[in-house]
């Protein structure tokens, strides 16, 4: 058996929620005749989602959403699945990356599934002729949702998109536990360095940042949080983390993880302040949080090894992991989020794609939350797979929670 298929088989056994959806899709074929275009991280968990959509009757065209996150053996295995066409390639050039995006769009999809909004961006800029055929889309990540909401506010978004990232099942499990565990495990596997006792700086205390911070503290790191939001900064403080500006943290930190989704978090004003041997990594979607371009131009010497670029500035070394791209996927040993976490997120994607197909034509262009019923369904399916049962409200309790005329 080829390695890509082995990876998919391994992932499938830990994805019971998506497995239950696949069985229903195979029976009812709710996506029959639909063409779905996807730009996601092409690795084993994503492949199980793609198989599920194809089992539901869809013709699926997929490419990567990051030049370094594709696993080539999984891409090869996907091309052996009936109804699936995969164009992703690891370490592709920028030109190859967008050529693959456009090969997906050449299939004239009616539903898009994005992680970072690259398909939607291309549709709204260079492929506007395809817009009339789009029913709607789904977006997986925080950065993509920020951009989509900006488009919607400006009236530029031309079809409805489900904000899969913003639903509780995504934020509280994928963003917190998925990003937290996978980022730290990739850093440890790539560097073989100990976290315990080290000053570890987390930039941003959103759902991803708090996941990283909490997991790092559990491993014994001395965690510092940097923030621009007053409430999140206060929350980090109340949860026991040191909070300070990045310039102050730069002089202390030994390991840095950016999780903001914004640009210019670690820049030329911070680099001279860093300790010799500081390790910089990014867990945000795009490679804009660490100014690697400045380091490439200004370092006195550059040493490259597998997954680590070392820049020498005034005699001290700065180690950047995965070229400043997503550390949990772009490092050679990065496997992405844990399988069980992606089982939940991709179950949301599959059910949201079905929802868009059934309802997209009646929705005006804009960004929509995942319907609460879908979010609760995924949680319920997961509890069932774990053999966990919970209480239900009695009629008396339901009345009490909805009544206004019951006194003390």
Walkthrough of the structure:
Helix content is 45%, strand content 16%. It is an alpha/beta fold. An 8-stranded mixed sheet has the order 9-8-7-10-11-14-13-12, with helices on both faces. Helix 1 (3-12) crosses helix 4 and helix 2 runs parallel beside helix 3. It is globular and about 65 Å long. The termini are far apart. This is Adenosylhomocysteinase. Its cofactor is NAD(+). InterPro entries: Adenosylhomocyst_ase-like_sf, Adenosylhomocysteinase-like, Ado_hCys_hydrolase_NAD-bd, NAD(P)-bd_dom_sf, S-Ado-L-homoCys_hydrolase_CS. Belongs to the adenosylhomocysteinase family.
Descriptive labels:
Rossmann fold; 2 domains; Adenosylhomocysteinase-like; adenosylhomocysteinase activity; Adenosylhomocysteinase; 7-stranded parallel sheet; Adenosylhomocyst_ase-like_sf; 408 residues; alpha/beta
Main sheet: which strands, in order across?
Answer: 9-8-7-10-11-14-13-12
DSSP strand count: 15
Low-confidence spans: pLDDT under 50, at least 5 residues?
none
Gyration radius over CA? 22 Å
> In total, how many domains does the architecture comprise?
2
The CATH class of the largest domain is Alpha Beta
Principal-axes shape call: globular
The CATH H-level superfamily of the largest domain is Adenosylhomocysteinase-like
Helix count equals 16
* Portion of residues within helices: 40-55%
Q: Would you tell me the structural class of the helices and strands?
A: alpha/beta
Named at the architecture level, the CATH assignment of the largest domain is 3-Layer(aba) Sandwich
**Overall mean pLDDT:** 96
Question: Sheet with the most strands?
Answer: 8 strands, mixed
Q: What is CATH's topology name of the largest domain?
A: Rossmann fold
User: What percent strand?
Assistant: 15-25%
In whole angstroms, the N-to-C terminal distance is 67 Å
């Amino acid at each position: 058996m080829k390695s890509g298929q082995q990876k998919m088989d391994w992932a499938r056994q830990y994805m019971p929620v998506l497995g239950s959806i696949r069985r229903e899709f195979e029976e009812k074929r709710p996506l029959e005749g639909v063409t779905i275009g996807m730009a996601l991280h092409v690795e084993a968990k994503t492949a199980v989602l793609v198989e599920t959509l194809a089992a539901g009757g869809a013709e699926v065209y997929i490419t990567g959403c990051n030049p370094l996150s594709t696993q080539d053996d999984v891409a090869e295995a996907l091309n052996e699945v009936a109804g699936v066409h995969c164009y992703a390639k690891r370490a592709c050039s920028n030109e190859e990356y967008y050529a693959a995006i456009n090969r997906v769009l050449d299939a004239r999809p009616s539903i898009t599934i994005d992680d970072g909004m690259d398909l939607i961006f291309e549709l709204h800029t260079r492929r506007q002729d395809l817009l009339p055929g789009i029913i709607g889309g789904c977006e997986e990540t925080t950065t993509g949702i920020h951009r989509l909401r900006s488009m919607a506010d400006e009236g530029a978004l031309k079809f409805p998109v489900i904000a899969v990232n913003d639903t509780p099942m995504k934020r509280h499990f994928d963003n917190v536990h998925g990003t937290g565990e996978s980022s730290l495990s990739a850093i440890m596997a790539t560097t073989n360095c100990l976290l315990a006792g080290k000053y570890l700086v987390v930039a941003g205390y959103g759902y991803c940042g708090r996941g990283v911070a909490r997991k790092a503290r559990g491993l014994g790191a001395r965690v510092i949080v940097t923030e621009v939001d007053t409430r999140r900064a206060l929350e980090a403080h109340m949860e026991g983390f040191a909070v300070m500006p990045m310039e102050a943290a730069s002089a202390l930190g030994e390991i840095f993880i950016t999780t903001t989704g914004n640009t210019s978090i670690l820049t030329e004003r911070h680099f001279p302040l860093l300790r010799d041997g500081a390790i910089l990594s990014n867990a945000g979607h795009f490679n804009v949080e660490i100014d690697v371009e400045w380091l490439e131009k200004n370092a006195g010497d550059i040493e490259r090894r597998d997954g680590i670029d070392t820049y020498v500035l005034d005699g001290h070394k700065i180690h950047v992991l995965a070229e400043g791209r997503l550390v949990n996927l772009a490092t050679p040993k990065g496997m992405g989020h844990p399988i069980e976490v992606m089982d939940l997120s991709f179950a949301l994607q599959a059910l949201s794609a079905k929802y868009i197909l059934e309802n997209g034509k009646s929705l005006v262009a804009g960004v929509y939350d995942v319907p609460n019923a879908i979010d609760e369904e995924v949680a319920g399916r997961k509890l069932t797979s774990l053999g966990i049962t919970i209480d239900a409200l009695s009629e008396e309790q339901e009345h009490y929670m909805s009544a206004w005329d019951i006194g003390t």
